[in-house]
Structures
1.
Amino acid sequence: MIIPILAIVIGILILIWSANRFVDGSSALAHHFGMPPLLIGMVIVGFGTSSPEMIVSVQSALQGSPGIALGNAYGSNITNIALILGLTAIISPITVKSRILRNELPLLSLVTILSAWVVYDGQITRWESVLLLALFFLLMGWSVKQGMSKNPDALAVETEESLAGAHLKPKKALWWMLFGLVLLIGSARLLVWGAVDIAHTLGVDDLIIGLTIVAVGTSLPELASSLAAIRKNEHDIALGNVLGSNLFNTLAVVGLAGSIHPMEVGREIFTRDMVVMGTLTLSLFVIGYRFPYGKGRINRFEGILLLSAYIGYTTYLISGLM
């Protein structure tokens, strides 16, 4: 039991460190070759912080542990909104100035509804997984189009200011990107092995392990990025990390895992986890959008509500093991 616990702890620590190196290297390399800051913020930083979720879920699917794969993806979405944005807003209320992020809020809500439809029948087939991946690539195309736009946007300004402080030469940036990716894969294998071993030893459903320990562990890069952004008063980057990550998790992570290994889905995923994820996503849309064109704002009270929802949800999951 001690060795699997150490495997999880060490795996998470290396996962966080390697994810940061991977994102830093990728961003610096893209910036060096002239990629627009908005595109770097939306694609590389936004989706890059979800690389741990992707690697862990793919590894879980390859090892025949769909519970960890799904729990990791959906649990990370819940963690991102309730824990990360909740904590961030408590520290400093988040003002949503970016037009693009306001467009992503209803898009994330629609993607969440699609996810509920996919899991409703108790399985995720290979064709449904391909559909999720196809939608992800369409979203990537939209992101590229937005990123290449010449229209000024708050997210582009904040990303450019953030990149101005990075001074990685191209060779070093390439090294960090590749080295970070290798460590990501290795640490993900370690984390999945430890999580599966503990689940089997304790007789706990691996879905619960995926929703709690694994989801929090793989979401720590988003937490670190959002807290760092809020300290620099880069509110749109803090929110962009979460929105990009949740879109990536829901479409690419689940789509990849399901393409590798079609999954049986327990009813509780739809009636419990999808309800929580959908409610949180809808609440984020309501408080972050502010109809019709005003600046959305997540204040401290709303942050406390989000954090309370996370504590309540996690307590409910753990209480079911008693």
Note: The mean pLDDT is 81.
2.
Amino acid sequence: MSDSRTRTRTADLTALEELPPPAAVVFDCDGTLMDTEPCADAARSTVFARRGHVYDDAARESLVGLAVAQAGEVMARLLGGSAPRLAEELAQELLTAVADGAQPMPGATDVVARLAARVPVAVASNGPRELLDTSLAHGGLSRWLPITVSGDDVATPKPHPACYLAACAALGVDPGRTLAVEDSPVGARAAHAAGMTVLGVGTLTRGPHVHAHAPTLDDAALSHWLAGW
């Protein structure tokens, strides 16, 4: 998930407008469909505080977008201790926080519903299976997203393309004809490596791994593009 404290406000969908509509769409979950960023911050802060450390901006930057196992390795370097144990502790804190308070990102429900009525859709997440299922169910998005790939379902998490390739395979679509919707540089790298067109949302502005950008899923320009299919 990406940093939402500042957001680019102007959409740039030129690359999407120049291409045919995608044959399928694969969404990231955390920070893209579900506003789990505050939950993640609270969970990480709790783990840090138990060990007498402050969860500051530098720590946050080093952990954003990582799978739980990857986060455990980073926290072990920052805090000391066992990476697997830290990852397990973080996973439990995340699950509690998400079940208590995660909500869909602005526009997520409408975009997912509109796209699911037109093309196959799926989710590719670095999150553990239990966390992913809990988050989508809590946000009421599961009904439109029967195909999901979690961090537990692939050997190598984002930024490796495995989860996006697995989602495309499950949908039966060519990655080159599929749109990925991402909010983090780690996820954008994964989708780009899979050969997908990448729509960045939030602070994920255009760059080498992002083809188009919208500040939010309820952005007027994005809605206009969808209406033009």
Note: Residues 1-8 have pLDDT under 50 and may be disordered.
3.
Amino acid sequence: MNTQPSFAQSAPLSAPLSAHHIEALATRRVKAKLGWYHHATVYACVIGGLALIGLWQGRAWPLAPALGWGLGLAVHAFVAFGPRFGESMKAKMLQTERERLMNRH
């Protein structure tokens, strides 16, 4: 026997977000932003220390880790603060699926 709910029994596709879901989403976004600030602080401390060592040695080797890690920090910033491409993509996909289902019935 199939215990999976049928499409008709599932939650409505256009159900509004509940207060619980809004709170969870807000919490997740705040954690992402605070995580970036932590990441940026660690980056500044470590790269600053490496830069001092590089200056003391008279070499530019700390430039490579600064650029590589800086790229990772930039991607992290885009994910934490940038446009919500994933959410807008999800909304578009849901709308397309709704239209497809409406046209079938």
Note: Confidence is low (pLDDT under 50) at residues 4-11.
